[in-house]
Amino acid sequence: MDLHHTDGGHGRHRRRQTRRRIAVVGLAAAVLAGAILVATLWPGGPASSDAGQAAPSGSGASAGASADPGSAAPGAARSTPPAAGSPGPEASSSHPAAGSPAPAASSPIPGVGAALAVGRAPHYMAVAPDGRFGYIADPVAGAVLRFDLGRAEVTATIPIPDAPPELVTFAPDGSRAYVSAYRDDFSANYIVTLDARTDSRISAVPVGRGPYAAGTTPDGRLLYVPYYDEDHLDVLDAATGAMVGRIPEEPCPHWVVFTPDGRLAYTTNHFSDVVTVLDVARNAVLTTIRVGDGPHSLEMSPDGARIAVVNYIAGSVSLIDVATNTVVGTVAGVGAGPQDVTYAPDGRHFYTANVDDGTVAVVDALSGAVTARIPTGASPTSVAVAPDGRHAFVTNFGDGTVRVLDTATG
What we know:
Layout: E1 30-32, E2 35-37, E3 106-117, E4 124-127, E5 133-138, E6 143-148, E7 153-159, E8 165-170, E9 176-182, E10 189-195, E11 200-206, E12 215-216, E13 222-225, E14 232-237, E15 243-248, E16 253-258, E17 264-269, E18 274-279, E19 284-290, E20 295-300, E21 306-311, E22 316-321, E23 326-331, E24 338-343, E25 349-354, E26 359-364, E27 370-375, E28 380-385, E29 391-396, E30 401-408
Antiparallel strand pairs: 1-2, 3-30, 4-5, 5-6, 6-7, 8-9, 9-10, 10-11, 12-13, 13-14, 14-15, 16-17, 17-18, 18-19, 20-21, 21-22, 22-23, 24-25, 25-26, 26-27, 28-29, 29-30
């Protein structure tokens, strides 16, 4: 299997060949009785930021689930994980706002629903803060698709003529969405702003090479833009698109999340195998955290205590403690080529979209056990969860579908 994916398809993520170190790390797995048994390193407390070190005494292993839909992981010895805290409000649009009803309890084994034909190659879906709909970036169709969560169907198509749309994020109030659009050769690169109330295009601002998963500050004033082919982030005024800052970083900043209070931002640096911590007030780098090989997506837990980072090449998830900015757990072998990670709104589980083996893994956020590995379609590239926690929607880039999962218990 070629883990570099130099073929140029968006869903089969690429790592550019440069003078920088590019290491290929095979997934550590052994085939036994038709199942893939993977070790899970889960230290019992704060550890070194090097996620690759050996587990201290007292840590254990858990078993990954089989590839059958809805199958549970076999039982295994587990260490006592670090406390994750109680669920609470979080800035991500995939979780309920403060004052909303408590989300449904997430199931360790989601039910598998229909695979719906959506667009041509749905790459990434973001759910609006009100939970009524999501926007899906489809680079092959050259459009963003409005997907009604209740009706489970596309209700509007918004052409993006500037460049193929790759990723999308909402403003905290849901009034706008920001689309990262770029061509494979980086000859056209834009942040496109959409009016989410009218499903119309407001503006397109030229930016650096390969704008990736941008994020807005919790107050909605600023948009932080990472780049596939740059060594910095740009900070834009979210209302006007004007650049107000630039932050030098390690190569290929990919994804941005903020602490709920907006003081800190975290970015994955895909070619450097680190997560960078930023002081938002000063737009300055505070520290870097060594994670696994090829960190891609990351998300804050609903209580704001942990950050989950999927490592695309290593096939693992690193768990960062926000209080100490250290890696306190590693879940090995979640799947081949994990590209996206999303928490259930109740914080009990998180989901990884594994683009290279066509599955979504379900991970117990407390124990680190992989409780299910669900085939969803060809090249799943994102998992979006409704704020009420009852359904997840998986974009399958390779077969033009969105798979619906029933994620609630009972």
